[in-house]
Design a protein that fits this description.
Layout lengths: L1 H7 L12 E2 L5 E3 L2 E2 H8 L3 E4 L1 H16 L5 E6 L6 H9 L3 E4 L2 H9 L7 E3 L6 H10 L3 E4 L2 H10 L6 E8 L21 E2 L3 H10 L3 E7 L10 H10 L7 E3 L17 H15 L5 E4 L3 H4 L3 E12 L3 E5 L8 H5 L6 E2 L7 E6 L8 E8 L7 E5 L5 H4 L11 E5 L2 E6 L4 H5 L4
Helix pairs in contact: 3-10, 6-7, 9-10
Length: 424
Amino acid sequence: MMLRRMLAAQQLSHVFPLGSRINERGRVEVGGCDTMELAREFGTPCFVVAPDDIRARARAFREAFAAQTDDFEVIFASKAFPCTAVYRLLWEEGIGCDVAGPGELAMALAAGVDPARIHVHGNAKTRAELAAAIDAGVGDVIVDNHRDLDLLEQLVPAGRRQPVFLRIAPGVSPETHPAISTGGPNTKFGFDLAHAPAAIERARASRAVELRGLHFHIGSQILDLAPFRTALEALTALGDFREYNLGGGLGVAYGEHDRPPSIEDYVAAKLDAVAEIVGPGRRVLDEPGRALVANACVTLYEVQSVKRNVDTYVAVDGGMSDNLRPMLYGARYEAQVADRIGGGTRCHLVGKHCESGDILVRDADLADPHPGDVLVVPVTGAYGHAMANTYNGALRPPVVFASGGDARLVVRRETCDDLLVRDA
């Protein structure tokens, strides 16, 4: 309910963080902070996060589940934004996390997340990663393959049993980009329906693991809720289980005209499917990632050049080093000049890297861009910081939390010394 009220009061497009507005100086304001002032203080590129937005979405997920069941857990799919401050913020809201690598586990523990609320993912977990997870006392391991079971049986101390879920590929391909569709019949993730029964039998017989239930995750940026029901129906052939982890996948709005399902509709669709297909009395786990953090963040850039060839190219001081999604998936974003909202100049917003494909927004519409302008690109909270890299020796951007007119640095900008520190 709070989330809907905040959206209704939004002055800028709903793709911007909740509470964003155009201030009295005609500038984009996020978390009560003038984005041009943020650019001056923290430099560009810069990830600016409105933590109040993340809190509102976390509460909306918890409230939507609590309205229909007492037996649930909401888990942050932390690959979307693996940042200690984000883990801590969501943990304060009662949201645990899943991790898919040693760094994610380390950050979650550093943030104070209860290890029992940490869930371990991955299709190629190493011995060292599983050993660290077991030593930390994680809540469960999502078993992707028989090698996971081999390692768990070698690593779990005698007399203990590690809780696990088996990840199942239900053979369902939702309408999304192929690179983020993960539940189809020929995917690298999980056991397909033909091989799942043997894995279930092995897990039940193992002295090292306790099979708690089944897991599926059919993909990301899903805007049609029907495939979730189809996926759950496919799992019924594998038997009856007390717990079901339904993965995540809820899509978000990247453009002003996008209208994804609401959190409430997403949760209701999943819980209704569980009640109708597998019956009452089940514990339900869900793993939103993008839907918790994407719209909470904007990236600030400074325009470096405006070039008119056949098309007009507006080049900024970042690019594929801080947002790989347009290059990987053809993802679409919008952009605004921080102090001139609107359009008028059709152009390609491009990065600074030595790749012709380094295009952040193709056919952007900006208001008369010039070198020195600060640009604001919204909806960069999911997979921007997560995929940031050092191509061309780029220094990865800082992460700044902005709330109530105050801004604080939660991840500093990388330095050239950082790039040299691992040299042997």
